[in-house]
Amino acid sequence: MTGDPGGKGAFHAATGDGPPFTGDAEQRSREVRSALDGLRQIRRLTGTPGGDSGTVPAPWERRQPVRAVALALEAGGLAASAVDAGGTRTATGYRVRAGERPATTVVEWLGPPGSGAAGQEAGALAACADALGRLGWEALLYKGPRGRRFLEVEPAGTAAGPGPS
Q1: 145, 99, 94: which is closest to 121 by C-alpha?
Q2: Count of C-beta atoms within a 10 Å radius of residue 49
Q3: Residue 60 CB: number of other CB atoms within 10 A?
Q4: 8 Å CB contact between 91 and 14
Q5: Residue 141: which region, alpha, beta or left (left: phi > 0; alpha: psi -120 to 50)?
Q6: pLDDT at site 87
Q7: What does the pLDDT look like over 25-54, one tens digit per residue?
Q8: Number of other CB atoms surrounding residue 136 within 10 Å
Q9: How many Cβ atoms are within 10 Å of 63's Cβ, its own excluded?
């Protein structure tokens, strides 16, 4: 779900690497709720062993974690970043990308130059971690190059990585 957050056709959760949303906000809200309801139904039907099927990511989510995490963040009411056709960041918000390990993602808080995104990232990433936790994802906060923070996200109950730095 990496494209077209405001476009036509199939639903795509905003990952923060697509165009800025320009459509009807109420319609988008309905689409996000419908996608989340569908995700919950998948969880109920797949009945993840060893956990509550409503709160543990389903196999589909584990195979497509960028899409699933982006949906969880958008459903949590968080704003996605965006880029223009040339790849220049145009909006401040979360960005979800694939992690280095299978079934993991990285969530960053990014914005255009001078947007103040770096100053917002601690609080914003905490809100992201909270939204993800409500849907069965574990988010560990790390500090990367130049002191920028990010979350490494994985399905709850998965062995953790090396720990925060």
Answers
A1: 94
A2: 7
A3: 13
A4: no
A5: beta
A6: 94
A7: 999 999 999 999 998 888 888 875 555 556
A8: 22
A9: 12
